[in-house]
Amino acid sequence: MQTPEAQSLRDDDQVIAQATPEQLARLLTVCIRQDRFCEGALESAFESGLLTRILERADAILSEIDQKSEGQGQKMKATMAVALHPKFPVPDRSKQPVRATKDRDGVIDIGWCDGVISDGRAFRAEMSAQNQVSMLTIFFSAIGLEELDEEAIRAFVQNEGLVSFRNQGQKYYAADIYVDDLGNRLWSVNIVVGDEDETYIEDSVPIFKYSDIGEPNTMFNPVAIKAAHGAS
To answer: Which of 24, 74, 166, 177 shows its CA 20 to 30 Å from the CA of 50?
Structure first.
């Protein structure tokens, strides 16, 4: 935990007692990722009481939520509970080489994000760019969602907080069924983030830079990035 914010949340009980839901989510993500790179890190976080403090603060936040927002509070609690054990197949992109520099078609990969949405469904988001156009592609299991049409899928990713479109202006997106490297049937949702003249979305999940030193570029079933480069 290198940032001052993360260190304060880890070490200062008063700071974590005032943490926002977003700070708790980032802190929990860091704990999980560290355990991927250093076995036992999550156990150490538990033994130190950090995980307990995270859950206590989350419980306090839920108790502060107004009765009208009770459903949203339960959604947050459920999302934290399933973070370590997704209920659906995890999108597998381990055999896809990362384009650290522009390829023949001018495409370059920018970053990624993994997570779990409210029903326990793991998602994978990948951002790339080509000819001054930035694209965000979101993958998640199609189980139980295969009959949805493109507009329903757009509403689904927005309602789950994976991306938010501007209320006004153009929206550029496409959705299709995709089979991943393990044979899982996924929805692949391609969204134009923006071009050199305009941005078409309001917000999205955070995007993490691809590692250039061989660290896993995923929270789930990590595979060293050098293995992916070797396939290119």
So the answer is: 74
Decide if 217 contacts 110 (C-beta within 8 A): no
In 19-50, which positions are buried (b, 16+ CB within 10 angstroms) versus exposed (e)? beeebbbbbbbbbbbbbbeeeebbeebeeeeb
Is 115 strand, coil or helix? Answer: strand
pLDDT, tens only, 147-205: 999 999 999 999 999 999 888 878 899 999 999 989 999 999 999 999 888 888 988 88
Instruction: Find the domain containing 59 and state its range.
Output: 4-81
Task: Collect all residues with Cβ–Cβ distance below 8 Å to 157 and sequence separation of at least 6.
Answer: 138, 163, 189, 191
If asked whether residues 124 and 207 sit together in one domain, one would say yes
Neighbours of 144 (CB within 10 A): 10
Whether residues 156 and 194 fall in one domain: yes
CA distance 190 to 188: 6
Among 66, 81, 96, the domain-final residue is: 81
| Residue type (1 letter), 139 | F
Do the Cβ atoms of 88 and 121 come closer than 8 Å?
yes
Give CA 100 to chain center in angstroms. 20
32/92 Cα distance (integer angstroms): 18
Q: Which letter does DSSP use for residue 33 in this model? A: H
pTM: 0.61
